[in-house]
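Dear Dr. K.,

Following up on our conversation at the group meeting, I've run the structure prediction for AbiEi antitoxin N-terminal domain-containing protein from Mycobacterium adipatum. I'm pasting the input sequence below exactly as I used it, so you can double-check it against your construct before we proceed with anything downstream. Let me know if the numbering doesn't match what you have in your notebook.
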Amino acid sequence: MSWHELLADSGVASTRQLLAVISRRHLRTLVDSGRLIRVQHGIYAAVAPDHLARLRAMDLRIGERAVACLHTAATLYGFDTDPDTRLHILDPGVRIRPSTDLMVHQRLGAPLALVDGRLATAPAWTAVELARTLRRPRALAVLDAALHSGRCTAADMASAVAQQKGRRGIVAVRALLPHADGRAESPMESEARLVFIDGGLPLPELQFEIVDRQGRLWRVDFAWPEFGVVAEYDSMQWHATAAALVHDRMKVARLQEVGWASVPLVVDEVRKHPGELVARMQTLFERAALAG
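The predicted structure tokens came back this morning:
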């Protein structure tokens, strides 16, 4: 067996496994040339490892299957809104020192679930536990994302909140739970919605669909049908290209033709000037009410 074949299965191999098929000198040459990447002490990969490969490397290191938690579990479930490059695992009961890329956690009694053949703290527990560590806007974002992923329900998260009663940050998460909505499609949409909630604005419809005069269907992030107002979060990542700008301008024009006022939202407005944003929306609602 060659070292390529050895790595083909799980993507990682220990020093002992590699030395069974190549010499120590050859191993050193492969590492020095970058053909092998050191994932952890004594564990190597041929390509930059993803979370699953890093967990498999941890399996080799501790001699048993590592259990993912917090950010690592959320990544496996598809709702890590605030990525953390460190590996987060439950204490395996084997002496292992945390490092700059590894965090070992004590989570006695945490319910577990299988994801991609790997044990991790259960989805709802993970979402609530992660939300407890974040600022309110980001906490709502992870709760929204967990619901959007379909991995858990609002009832599941309410149960997880009850299970984590008394832990730091749980009061804030409990207060946010009634506002969690799986229709949100990005963390910044969640942050903007919290601005509306905190500002006392009427709750918007999410991912609202509108048909223009040409019969084309448009979907908007937020809509207040009773006022004829919509709001869209403009991400620089998705809206900065020429094609995106043309699309956005056409969308605004088509919506205006059928009586909708469109409000663009940007990150600074949501995070730095929420009061001004709320006042602007309130003014639009008042004008619409007077006109009606």
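Two things stood out to me. The two ends are 78 Å apart (CA to CA). The CA atoms of residues 86 and 211 lie 45 Å apart.

Best regards,
J.T.
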